[in-house]
Structure formats: C-alpha cells, structure tokens
TrEMBL record:
Name of the protein: Transcription initiation factor IIA gamma subunit C-terminal domain-containing protein
Keyword annotations of the record: Nucleus, Transcription
Protein localization: Nucleus
Superkingdom to which the source organism belongs: Eukaryota
Amino acid sequence: MKILGTFDRVITEVLADKVRARLTFKGHLDTYRFCDEVWTFLIKDVTFKLDNQTTVSADKVKIVSCNSKRPGEA
C-alpha cells in the first residue's frame, strides 16, 4: 500500500506541474455504477478532442474513479 500511496502522490504532483494539454470527450453513457466508493462509467461511441485539434474515436471506454482517501479519513 505504501507504493500505491507514493504513486498517487507523485503522479498528482507531476500532472499538475508538467501537463498543459487539454482533453474533452463526448459519447453515449451506456452504464454507470457506484459500489464500495468506486464509480465505474461505460461509455460508447466516444470522441476525444486533444487541444481542440486532434480527434480520436473509440467504440467503448471504461472510466474508473475512486476517492483518494480511505473511508473514514478526513
């Protein structure tokens, strides 16, 4: 767990400091669920726009999102 904690901290710092690009996406939400403090989104026919120039398409995308803190932490 110490490795995951270190990874989360470092990747957050690096992304905030180094990444200047923007990404937007649009698609059709197929399924969403919230279980054990984890959100899961399944999106179909997704189009990503990178810096408002490059466009990338995908048939399906799965996004998993969770809280960075453990349940009960302040």
